[in-house]
């Protein structure tokens, strides 16, 4: 059994790197940006022949990646774009690190595992979790460094490298289906099924990795690896049956009476039986057995341990679950009937049901908030997230000032939800409040304001969004989404950007016009003519061909 591995995307315009350099030379600098014909001779020869990448270790003992930019591109096109990395170890004796920015352009760095120096370079990358990236442009016969970035390597890539160097296999990635499973498939019978439960010592894993976000990332990588293996498992399932992967957390106590937290993973389904050689149990136990933090495997009921269904694996696809109130209500009822420890115990399912009921009671909830304020028992500084969301849902236009005075309390999905609800309820009335929010110190609040301008299709907001589209990648992404929501009215503002000196700004304009896809948008892409940047021209052509 060999799960499908995620390999590097190879750009036909970018050739694989075979150039390996181990000079300890001084890298280029703003004071001396030209590649030296002697110190950087190997790099120059490679760039003149067939290569567009190379790597070396400099005189300070740090690893440098060199990239030869495509004709028409400059460092400005990369300066505010985040690097993405992928790892490929499919070719025996070699390891390849891919660095890419979008679907049109990527670079690869190939390491020979039989070379001690290259192994030393990879070890340095694992330890330091970063790399220096030099961007080289060719002008006539000269090679000039136009910029340097210190790129942080993603924890998943570093973790995979560490596993490889300790003799462990690569972690695989599953194939997700486009459609999610409705929770109506989670019937009473399905929810009451028993499952094999696998318990990871999360406390020990966190102590080893020493960072919460990185620990969560590592656990997620192993969950994906399990899904990929189960996808390839040839189970004799009927068309109605599917494997359900649940996740949960449990608190235990060590023999020294110290609390320890466990990350719990459960697999249930008709094919899952209480047998030591059950194929599902065997596969998952082998996969998680590579982690010393796997402490226990038990035949249990996920519902009894208040777990949540994460995905369904059916016919070689992984389907996400769309969980609604129906799931939490049914789970709460079943938990009370079958697993309630004692009368006063409140389950996780019950808390979710009560929270959702509280936030959907309509005017009753709003009037409570309003009366508290009128009686002077609550001030704006005492507002909670729930208070703000209640005013968003059930307030009126007179409450907009209060809402935006406290909207900083909202984060992530709650913030997006609030902006969406407000934009649908108040339309143009929201515009001045959104422009006020653009002055906030938080980039998240500014992004929410831009999204709002897009949702209300603000004519006054278009010039501002066009300005943000020409800034850093984070601001540009937020503006990009808002402009795309507005649609055709933004076309006249995008036309001048098609002649911008920076290729990345031209590319953003091309992508918005292509996504709008109207006759007017495509006509402007056609009139634009052939772009000097390979990746901009590739995007322009792809939209016109469609």
Q: Structural class, please?
A: alpha+beta
The average pLDDT value, as a whole number, equals 86
Q: Categorize the overall geometry.
A: globular
Can you list the strand order of the major beta sheet?
Answer: 8-14-13-10-11-9-12
Portion of residues within helices: 40-55%
Level-1 CATH class name of the largest domain: Mainly Alpha
Amount of beta strand? 15-25%
Count the beta strands: 14
- CATH architecture verdict of the largest domain: Alpha Horseshoe
Classified in CATH, the superfamily of the largest domain is Leucine-rich Repeat Variant
How many domains? Answer: 4
Question: What does this entry show, briefly?
Answer:
The protein has helices at residues 41-49, 116-128, 155-165, 188-191, 202-209, 212-232, 279-288, 325-338, 348-358, 363-374, 385-394, 400-406, 412-426, 431-437, 443-455, 461-469, 473-486, 491-494, 503-516, 519-528, 534-545, and strands at residues 53-57, 63-68, 84-88, 94-102, 105-112, 130-139, 142-152, 181-182, 195-201, 243-253, 259-268, 294-300, 308-314, 317-322. It is an alpha+beta fold and 546 residues long.
């Amino acid at each position: 059994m060999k799960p499908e591995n995620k390999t590097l995307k190879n750009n036909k315009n970018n050739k694989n790197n075979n150039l390996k350099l181990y000079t300890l030379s001084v890298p280029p600098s703003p004071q001396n940006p030209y590649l030296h014909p002697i110190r950087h001779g190997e790099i120059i020869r490679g760039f003149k022949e067939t290569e567009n990448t190379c790597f070396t270790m400099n005189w300070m003992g740090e690893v440098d990646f060199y990239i030869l930019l495509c004709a028409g591109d400059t460092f400005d096109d990369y300066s505010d774009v985040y690097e993405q990395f992928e790892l490929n170890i499919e070719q025996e004796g070699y390891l390849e690190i891919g660095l890419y920015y979008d679907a049109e352009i990527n670079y690869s760095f190939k390491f020979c595992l039989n070379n001690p120096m290259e192994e030393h370079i990879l070890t340095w990358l694992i330890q330091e979790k970063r790399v220096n990236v030099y961007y080289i442009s060719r002008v006539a016969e000269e090679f000039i460094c136009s910029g340097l970035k210190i790129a942080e390597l993603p924890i998943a890539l570093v973790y995979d490298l560490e596993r490889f160097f300790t003799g462990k296999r690569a972690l695989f990635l599953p194939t997700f289906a486009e459609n999610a499973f409705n929770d109506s498939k989670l019937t009473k019978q399905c929810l009451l099924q028993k499952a094999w439960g696998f318990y990871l010592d999360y406390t020990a894993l966190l102590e080893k990795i020493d960072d919460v976000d990185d620990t969560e990332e590592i656990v997620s990588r192993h969950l994906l690896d399990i899904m990929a293996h189960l996808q390839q498992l040839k189970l004799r399932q009927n068309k109605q049956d599917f494997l359900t992967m649940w996740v949960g957390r449990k608190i235990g106590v060590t023999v020294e009476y110290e609390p320890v937290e466990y990350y719990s993973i459960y697999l249930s389904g008709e094919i899952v039986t209480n047998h030591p050689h059950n194929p599902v149990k065997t596969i998952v136990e082998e996969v998680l057995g590579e982690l010393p933090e796997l402490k226990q495997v038990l035949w249990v009921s996920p519902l009894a341990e208040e777990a949540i269904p994460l995905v369904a694996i059916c016919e070689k696809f992984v389907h996400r679950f769309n969980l609604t109130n129906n799931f939490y209500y049914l789970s709460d009822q079943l938990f009370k009937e079958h697993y309630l420890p004692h009368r006063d115990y409140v389950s996780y399912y019950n808390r979710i049901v009560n929270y959702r009921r509280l936030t959907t009671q309509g005017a009753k909830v709003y009037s409570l908030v309003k009366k508290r304020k009128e009686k002077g028992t609550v001030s704006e500084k005492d507002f909670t997230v729930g208070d703000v969301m209640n005013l968003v849902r059930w307030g009126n236009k007179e409450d907009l000032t209060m809402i935006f005075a406290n909207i900083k309390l909202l984060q992530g999905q709650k913030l997006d939800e609030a902006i969406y609800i407000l934009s649908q309820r108040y339309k143009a009335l929201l515009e001045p409040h959104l422009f006020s929010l653009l002055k906030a110190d938080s980039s998240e609040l500014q992004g929410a304001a831009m999204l709002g301008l897009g949702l209300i299709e603000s004519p006054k907001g278009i010039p501002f969004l066009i300005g943000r589209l020409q800034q850093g990648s984070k601001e540009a992404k937020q503006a990009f989404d808002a402009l795309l929501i507005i649609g055709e009215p933004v076309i006249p503002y995008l036309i001048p950007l098609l002649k911008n000196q920076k290729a990345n700004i031209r590319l953003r304009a091309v992508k918005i016009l292509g996504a709008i896809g109207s006759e007017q948008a495509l006509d402007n892409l056609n009139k634009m003519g052939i772009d000097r940047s390979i990746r901009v021209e590739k995007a322009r052509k792809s939209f016109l061909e469609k």
